[in-house]
Amino acid sequence: WEKRDFDFPVRLLDIDTPELNEDRGDTAKEFLADRILGEEVWIRIRRENRVDKWGRLLGVIEYMGININEMTVKLGMAKPFNQRHEGEIQTLRELVS
Length: 97
Fold this sequence. Notes:
Blueprint: E1 10-12, E2 15-16, H1 25-36, E3 42-44, E4 57-63, E5 66-67, H2 68-74, E6 79-80, H3 92-96
Parallel strand pairs: 1-4
Antiparallel strand pairs: 2-6, 3-4, 4-5
């Protein structure tokens, strides 16, 4: 945004991608960088859910009319955030598969 001449971290809202130190984390990062790094994008922010606990802006990224958040899920680079199952204990079957 022209009136904001600084960088700030953005987290893609409602999706969960692997951490950079996890399997496929670098792949997801490179995938996004190849598509939107240096490009003008729209960041749609929900008034009730604007910033995460780490101070990152939360938003839906749109580039050339494409919802990047949804695209990463459809292409297997991310999962919907509600499928994260944070804090749940995995079964042996889940660990092996």
